[in-house]
Amino acid sequence: MAVRLPRPHRDDVRIALGGLLGGLLLYAVGLGVRPADEPIVLWPDSRALLLPLVVTAGCELLRRAMPRTALLTGTVAVIADLFTRGSLATVLMFTDLMYAAVLYGRVATARRILWITGLCTVAGTVVPVAVWRVPEALLVGVGVGLVALTPAATGWIVRNHRDTAAAERLRAEQTALLAEIDRTQAVTAERARMARELHDMVANHLSAIAIHSTAALSLDDPKTSKDALAVIRENSVEGLAEMRRLIGILRDESGDRETSAAPTLDGLESLVVSARANGLDVTLDARHEARLPAPVELAAYRIVQECLTNALKHSSPGHVTVTLAQLDGALTVRVTSPYGDRDGPRAPGSGAGLVGMEERVALLDGTFEAGPEGAGPVKVWTVRATLPITHRTHRTHRTPGTPDTPGTPGTHGGTE
Predict the structure, then answer these.
(1) Which pTM does this prediction carry?
(2) In 3D, which of 112, 97, 107, 115 has the Cα closest to residue 16?
(3) Over the chain, what is the mean pLDDT?
(4) Residue 183, helix vs strand vs coil
């Protein structure tokens, strides 16, 4: 089967043609490297130098595609050229083959060529001096160094620069890719955070509005309708205020406004009062330090808020308990509510509430559980969230007006 040679690069074709035409021009004017009467010249006929010239020019066509083969063939050609009157074009093309073999060849081949040319240069310097013992013998080593070592070293330097540039480009591309991934993740995380905030701030008020408006429409009782409209108006005003706060957070580039306006555990009492006004029978027992890290307080507040919202939408009539306890460097939030069928109006759920609570707890490396407990007709829906605390002030805080004994263990009302 015939071996198909690779197609030469157009630059290699130009180099080969340039070297061949230059050698032919030198041949035409009768210029050679050595005089015909030198002892080393075995073929004094000037036409003898054309064969090494043509072979070396042909090797230039393979300098990029098959660098090692081109160098080996070119080495044979330049050795043959030594026994003719010689052509400067052949020698110059051989130096280019040496350079190309180091630049385009394999790394192992390039290192091997450097070692071989270095050893040949040393041998070409030491051996002639030791044999002939004349200063002119040093010129042999200089010639070997110029023809072999210098182009090989140049090719190695260029190769290192090229590899370094390629590595830097790759590193820059990887950095840009990582930056884009970080940006995308940051945008996704921010969208998820704002979705949680929007859901937690508005869902409570809209759920109360939906339930009381349904009651006002279904019951033909002026007093009931008036009370429902009062609750609807109160929740509408509070929901509008929450929306304005959220819009202010989005428009504030510094982020300081969000920190200062973020709800804290001190607002749990008013949250419970609002839930009672909406018709929930709820008690609060909170035992924690006076000031906890802001992310912990915000997460605990939003979890309690979402639990009360779910209890308002889904729980059956009964008592709802909210318990906050600090123990072993963690704040535990528990909310329990009756679980079962309800006769009154029910607000639709989207399933985002439990997901949002679980995400908040996961961001703080805490644990989260939610589900029904108990057997038989009496069941409670329990949500339990444990939030690790990194900074403590060693001062106990109790929400005013709460009982001295902890509430019923458990957590969170309803199923979002």
Answers:
(1) 0.55
(2) 97
(3) 82
(4) helix
Instruction: Give me the residue spans of the domains in the chain.
Output: 10-172, 191-398
- Kindly provide the b/e burial profile for residues 83-105, where b requires at least 16 CB atoms within 10 angstroms of the residue's own CB: bbbbbebbbbbbbbbbbbbbbbb
Residue 398 pLDDT > 50: no
A 10 A CB-CB count for 159 gives: 17
Token couple for 115: 């070692």
- Cβ-based neighbours of 95, under 8 Å, separated by 6 or more: 146, 147, 148, 150, 151
Q: Which amino acid makes up residue 378?
A: V
Q: What H or E segment, with its residue span, contains residue 223?
A: helix 222-251
- CATH class as words, domain 191-398: alpha beta
CA atoms within 13 A on the CB side of 173: 6
Distance (Å) of CA 239 to CA 112, 231, 312, 360: 78, 12, 16, 22
